[in-house]
Design a protein that fits this description.
43% of the residues lie in helices and 18% in strands. The chain has 18 helices and 15 strands. Strand 10 and strand 11 (342-346) form a beta hairpin. Helix 13 crosses helix 14 (252-264).
Length: 407
């Protein structure tokens, strides 16, 4: 069992003064939640900046006059904790600050402790004078146990890699750099191309091996890696479970599970077909589209750098981060994105193919609620009822702040 001295020796290794560049849109949304009782949960793909945001919240507390003795940050992914990952460790952590004025405990990578959900609920219901802020791999924080045990006891925020507006605040390398290497903070701040690629390879390896293969005990690891690489190599691919099963020679049940695991770990997200008919969603031709959560994940696995796919993915990522009910539609022609009364097509060149205009006209004629037709491309103009909006300016627009959901 870990001793108080052992714990203290490990914790002193974590300086809280270095907090990196401030993620303003998240900090603005998260600061008010620190005064509330609910457990604050930060979830998102690995290396998107959750730990840094935790430390930025700690600096905010200190700036408000909260004493350092009332604040504890613990990274449970530290190898020093490996022999002690149980409730005894959590109890000892609580003892460090659990007496006296209101305390704040930040538990990073909390999924390392099996059953942490029950422990948190117990402390919450005991009404200890502690605010818990936790983070971890997304698959763990989407578990049924967490949803069941902490319903009504938590505030959950989704954290993402840098969007283009944040990227522009972190770096002056420009639009092409963002399209190519994406927005993972360490990647953005790295100067050397080879180091960027190595970081991205490490991220994908950790997500696949730790958050998916390890957590879900996938027996055929090589098969899953091949499956993941295929989807990441083809952003925006429109494909069904049946077709994936045939093309990759993988059983249908495994394909369904693999897709769910990738979506849970935030390495991938799904854009379904738009229809008012529930039946039409199960028609084979109306298969969903899949995008990586960050453009850097596309680059790592392929030498192909198709600008159209990069730009379309970046737009999809922005919509997804805004928690839009996002769809695509296809008749004779395709519409890239549909939400509310808006229909969008994304074109990376100044010359607009006729099919892009035809697709927008087709959906407007098919659905009366579509009132805005927009083409995102390098231009700014309006023509024949269609608005042309510059892609870079569109991605720079301030999007909604951090997404808050109860588990």
């Amino acid at each position: 069992m870990i001793t108080k001295k052992d714990l203290t020796n490990i914790l002193v290794q974590y300086p809280l003064e270095s907090v990196g560049l401030i993620r303003h849109k998240y900090i603005k949304s998260l600061k008010p939640t620190l005064d509330r009782k609910e457990i604050l949960i930060l979830k998102g793909i690995r290396r998107c900046g959750k730990s840094t945001i935790m430390k930025q919240l700690i600096q905010h507390l200190i700036s408000k006059g909260i004493k350092k003795e009332q604040i504890l940050y613990v990274n449970l992914d530290d190898y020093n904790f490996l022999p002690y990952l149980d409730f005894g460790l959590l109890d000892l952590i609580l003892e460090q600050v659990g007496h006296g004025p209101r305390a704040y405990i930040f538990l990073d990578e909390i999924q390392k402790i099996t059953g942490f959900e029950s422990w948190l609920r117990t402390q919450y219901d005991r009404e200890v004078n502690v605010k818990f802020i936790i983070s971890g791999s997304t698959s763990a924080l989407l578990s049924k146990e967490l949803g069941t045990l902490l319903t009504g006891r938590n505030l959950t925020f989704q954290i993402f890699p840098l969007d283009y507006k944040e990227f522009s605040e972190f770096s002056d390398k420009g639009f092409d750099e963002f399209m190519t290497y994406g927005g993972f903070p360490e990647v953005v701040l790295e100067e050397r191309t080879e180091n960027k690629l190595n970081l991205l390879r490490d991220y994908i390896s950790d997500i696949i091996n730790k958050d998916i293969i390890g957590r879900h005990k996938i027996k055929d690891a090589m098969q899953f890696r091949h499956f993941a690489q295929f989807l990441l190599n083809n952003p925006g691919i429109r494909i069904s479970v049946n077709r994936l099963s045939k093309e990759l020679d993988i059983g249908k049940d495994s394909v369904k599970n693999y897709l769910q695991y990738m979506i849970e770990s935030y390495i991938l997200f799904e854009v379904p077909f738009f229809s008012y008919s529930a039946k039409s969603k199960f028609i084979a031709a109306n298969m969903p589209k899949y995008y990586p959560i960050d453009n850097g994940l596309y680059l790592v696995n392929t030498s192909r750098r198709e600008r159209g796919k990069q730009v379309e993915s970046a737009v999809a990522q922005k919509f997804f981060r805004q928690n839009k009910d996002l769809f695509y539609w296809k008749g004779k022609n395709e519409v890239d994105f549909v939400f509310e009364n808006n229909a969008f097509n994304v074109v990376s060149s100044e010359e607009i193919p006729e099919r892009e205009i035809s697709g927008l006209s087709e959906i407007k004629n098919s659905f009366k609620h579509i009132s805005r037709m927009i083409i995102l491309n390098p231009k700014n103009k309006a023509e024949k009822g269609i608005s042309y909006i510059n892609i870079e300016e569109f991605l720079l627009e301030q999007q909604n702040t951090a997404v808050n959901r109860n588990v």
